[in-house]
Amino acid sequence: MRYPNIYTREDMLDALRRHAVDGRIPRGEYDRLRAASDPSPARYDQVFGTWNNAVREAGLDPISPNRELYDRVSKADCVLALEAAAAAARKSPLTLTEYDGWAREHGGPSSGTIRNRVSKRWTDALREAGLPARGWRRP
Q: Taking the complete model, does pTM exceed 0.85, yes or no?
């Protein structure tokens, strides 16, 4: 059985605009906020091809929530997170795996973000934070 399409494109775009905050509406946030009568995120994929296509057509910013969070993390935030994780670690030096576990538990920036913000190499990031590190040192 085929169900009739009860939403026009404009109805769908209006629903996105209604739930947007500061010109943005991440998919998960829309799904959490939407009324039962609003189209599902999957319906946007069917009609517009992708979620971001629908967001753009609604005149909104398709930036992902993860990117937004990443953009707010400074180098100083990363150094503080390294220091806190090292203080909580059972041994020294702090390994990347130990840090990732600490970051998941405490909401810290990912090790990838730290390497992007502080230094590409984990051991160099530790040294820049004033923490002990093993391994080869760049000349």
A: no
